[in-house]
Amino acid sequence: MSVRRVLVVVHRYVGLAIALFLVVAGLTGSILAYQHELDVVLNPSLFHAEAPSPGAEPLTFLHMRQRLLEQLPGADVSYVPLRFTPNQSVLFYASAGEAGPELDNDQYFVDPYTGNLLGGRRWSDISQGPKNLIPFIYKLHYSLALGSVGKFLLGVVALLWTIDCFVGAWLTFPPRPKSTTNKRSSKGWWRLWFKSWLFKTGGLYKATFTWHRAGGLWLWGMLLVFAWSSVGMNLAEVYEPIMKPLFGLDEHPYFTIPKLDQPRHTSEISWPEAIQRGREIMAAQADARGFEVQQPQYLRYSASQGVYRYQVRSSLDITKRYPSTVIWFDSNTGEQVAFLAPTGQTAGNTITTWLDNLHFAAVGGWPYQAFVCLLGLAVTALSVSGVIIWHKKWKARRSQRKNNRSAQVK
User: Is the pLDDT confidence value at 116 over 90?
Assistant: First the structure.
């Protein structure tokens, strides 16, 4: 078999194997381009918190935390948000305390002006009804709602999709002219390839085939971005060994900070002191590395590692939506344990940050959000059109085999 024939077979069967998964990912991803906006529309009672008067000031975040603890006796509230949007609730995460009762939810929405609990939900638990519809779609998107097994499976699909991006592109190239020195032949090759970029009508099959080929070419760069970023998020054991030697890639401190033999449920540094310590360490990092701290995001405590995580938006971030400039420090000594910047440390970190934020439609404002929404539909259409093309050719091959057998019998 020629190389081209082998690649045709690879494209055919890889495409068939991943088509259904890409349809699910494309449709759910199209919805998730507006994840927060849709969640707010579907759950106004959770997200909306009317100010009691114009210009009313919210409670401090630690005061909100204390009010939540009063309403959830025995709970462990180890996440404190540090940013506020007028007329919107503030989201806290809580779990069962060391000796407290089990909680029905893990997300709690607090009125920032009164500290009253507006409601809660167990993230992605669709049995709780519409309030978890968008989180469930998110879970379906990245793991098929099957936990680690589904996440790994979609990681394999993403890897096959990445490979198929290159195979599919190569198959759009017409055969090279035998004489590479013949300028007329070379120009003819480019003219032939240009036709691959055109969508043509003239029957359903022709329209489907040319859409599949031309659509894949026009969207090729972004399809590769989404495929490879999915590998990074779901199949790190493949992504990191490739990116690290090529560009340098720091392992996330979450995986490098060792876990304690016994969880440290109480620390010597209190929450107010931890906020102040986080500010000091982040300011020192900003001075040393030459970046600007723009807005604090949250403080989280990890009992299993005995560290606080203090996250801010800084001039190193490429988006306001998912800022990720972070420091970790020991909850007893206050000593810095790790620092992670979204850009500026290694090329691999910077590339990964861009890939992730492009995937999450977190850059470029509403025009890019709309593009990602449409791209999800296009991924679905490319997958469906590929199956239609295969089925049409499979029927033709089966008919040809029947004709050949009939001819042999005669």
Answer: yes
